[in-house]
Amino acid sequence: MSGKAKSLADQAYETIKQNILNLTYPPGMPLTEAKLAEELGMSRSPVRTALRMLQTDGLIVTDYYKSMTVKEITEEDINQIYQLRELIELPAFKLIFDSEKYEEFSYRIEEKVVRMCAVASDPFAWEIADIAFHMEIVSIYENERIDRIYHNNLSELTRMGVHSVKNGMEIQQTNDHLKDLVEYMRQGDYEHAVKILKDDHFGTGRTTAMSK
């Protein structure tokens, strides 16, 4: 493949992937090479390559007749992702307090919350910033394998988060609650801080992700 053709395939891949993650192409939407090539202003060859890459990523699935659709977000997917996050993040949050690093982490987390507030009008950008907030919590482990678990599930995390916002999770309210979380961390108040984390991200976030 020539450098130019590879570049076009990469461009197609990034554009289609972002449209899947921000739900411009919603779960279950049929995709065709011809339509995408026309939409992207490209020939079908780089689009075909991009679609193969997205199939490898698990974002596009094919049926018996080779028809392509954006992968659905199933209830099982949501339950598994949230179970994974709770198993990793809640003990990490407690470790921040048990190791008496809550003041240090309050400032580190505040930086992420400021970013979330700055992009509040864009659900996709906000969700990327929200993931960075959660990654800051798990950084307490200093464990590259745990970091890789999050990176390996980044696409699903992003899609579920944007889906939650579109189904009723209120960005402004969440941001306000996270500002409170930062203040509770500064005070060393684990009980009130973790309640916000549980209620907003493992309560409301999970419930709205389940909504159709």
Brief description of this entry?
α1 (3-21) crosses α3, α2 packs across α3 and α6 (123-138) crosses α8 (154-166). A three-stranded antiparallel β-sheet has the order 1-3-2. The protein has ten helices and three strands, in the order αβααββααααααα.
CATH class category name of the largest domain: Mainly Alpha
CATH topology of the largest domain: Four Helix Bundle (Hemerythrin (Met), subunit A)
Number of strands: 3
Structural class: mainly alpha
Order of helix and strand elements from N to C terminus: HEHHEEHHHHHHH
What's the CATH H-level homologous superfamily of the largest domain?
Answer: GntR ligand-binding domain-like
Given the structure, what is the number of helices? 10
- Our measurement of the CA-to-CA distance between the termini, rounded to an integer number of angstroms, reads 41 Å
Average of pLDDT? 92
**What are the low-pLDDT stretches, counting only 5+ consecutive residues below 50?**
none
As a percent range, the share of strand residues is: under 5%
Radius of gyration: 19 Å
> What is the CATH architecture assignment of the largest domain?
Up-down Bundle
Largest sheet: 3 strands, antiparallel
Task: Report the helical percentage.
Answer: over 70%
Strand order of the largest sheet: 1-3-2
Domain tally: 2
- The coarse overall form would be elongated
